[in-house]
Amino acid sequence: MADLIIDGATVITVDPQRRVIADGAVVVENQRIIAVGKSNEIKQKYSADTRIHAETKILMPGLIDCHVHLAQALIRGTADDVDLIPWLRDYVWVLQGNFTPDDGKASAELCIAEMLKSGTTSFLESMIHKRYGMDGIAQVVERTGIRGCLSKLFMDWTGYAGEDAIMYEGMIEDGEECISETLAMHKKWQGAADGRVYIWWGARTPGAVSPELYRRVADLARKRHMRITMHLGEVKEDVEYTTSQFNQLPAEFARDVGMMGENVVLVHGVWISPKEYPIFTDTGTHMCHCPASNSKLASGIAKIPEMLQAGINVCLGCDGGPSNNAYDMFREMYLAAIIHKARTLDPLIMPAETVLEMATINGAKALGLEREIGSIEAGKKADLILVDTRQLNLAPTYNPVSNIIYTANGFNVYTTIVNGQILVHEGKLLTLDEDQVIENAHKRGEKLLDRTGVNIQSRWQRN
Predict the structure, then answer these.
(1) What is the pLDDT of residues 156-167, one digit of tens each?
(2) Residue 459's pLDDT band (cuts 50, 70, 90)
(3) Which domains does the chain have, with CATH numbers?
(4) pTM of full prediction above 0.85
(5) What burial class does residue 219 get, using C-beta atoms within 10 Å of its C-beta: 0-12 exposed, 13-18 middle, 19+ buried?
(6) Residue 166: beta bridge partners?
C-alpha cells in the first residue's frame, strides 16, 4: 500500500526524455516517487492510503528558487523606485540592521508561506545575519515542511564595491564569529527535518570580504563538503571594483579567492562578460538569474542565453521583498522567458522549455540535489506541485509547458508536496496559519518602521 497516488493529471516530468504524459499518474511511498506512468496502468498495479484525482490539473516538479532573502519579506515595498546605493544605505540595511530574532522568524514564515502557496518546494537563502536568529529560521523550515538551504553570511570588511565603510552598523559582523557560527549551525542543523535543511556559506560581495577570508572559507567548504553562494557582477560597480583593486574581472577574482566550483552558486551575473564564461564551465560553477530584481533595480539584463549556450548551468531566483517584490517563481519564469527575446530581437532565444528547466532540474543541479529533486522520476523525492487549469488564465491548455511559463501564476497552484507530505491543498496552507502569519507580519513591520524611523513615502499624497 503506497502513501499517495495522484492520477488523471497532465504530467510534465522534466525527466531525461522530457516526457509530458497525458492522463498520467505518480505513486509516492516513504517520501519518494516509486512509479510514473499512465493512469490506467498505475491503477492496475498500485493502491494508496490517499488518492488525488487530478483531472484538469498539471502535475510537475516543485519549483526551486535559488536566490532568496527570507528576512526581506518583512520589508517588502520599503525601497521602491530608489537608486541602488541609497536603496541599501538608507533603507534595506537600516531596516535589516534593526531586526530581532522574532522579526527574522516572522519574515521567514511570511516568505515561506508565499513560496509554498505559489509552488516553490526548495529554496536557497543567500545571507542570514546572526541578528535574524538562524535557529528560529531553521525551526520554521522544519515546521513548515519546505526544503531549505540556509546560508550564514560571512564578512570582515564594511564596503560595497567601490564604496568604503558604507555598511550600516547593525549589519556588520566579525569574520571569526561568522566562521564559528556557521560551523556550529552546520553541526546542529545539516540534514535535520528528514534531510530538508542544508547549511551553506553566504558570502558578502567583494568589498565586504577580504581575499584572505574568502580563501579560508573556500578551504573550509571543500574540507567539510559544504556549499557556497555569493552575489557577483550584479552592478557595473562590481566590475570597476575588482578591476581597479585587483586588476581582475569579477569571475577572475572569484576564481582566485576560491569562490568558484561545483559547490558554488553565483548570483545575478549581469555584468559578467563572455571572456569569463570559460571560468564557469571549467570549474562547474552555477549561475542564478534574477530577472525581476535586476530589472527593478536597473542593474541590467544578464546575458543568460549566451551563458546557457556556453554550457553554464543557469537556475532562477526571486531575490527579496524590496527588489522583486514577490516570491512567486511563476512571475520569474515569465520574465526570464520574455526579456531576452526583447534584448536580442530573437523570439526563439529562450523557449518555454528552457526556462522550465532553469526553475526545476537546473536548480536541483545548482543545489547539488539533482539525484534527489528537480524532475518526476522513480526514486526521486516527491517534491511535486499541481496547477489547476480550470481557471480563466489557463484556458484553453493546448501546450501545458507554454501555459506554465507564459500564463500561469502562483495563484493557480492547487497542491504543493515536499518529501511526499502535502503542505498546500486546494490552495490552502496546511502547516501554517495564514491569517496569523499575515497579522504578525503587519504588526512586526509597523514596529520595525517605528523603531528605525525609516519613512516610506509615496510620490502621491496619502490622506
Answers:
(1) 999 998 888 899
(2) confident
(3) 2-61+374-428 (2.30.40.10), 63-366 (3.20.20.140)
(4) yes
(5) exposed
(6) none
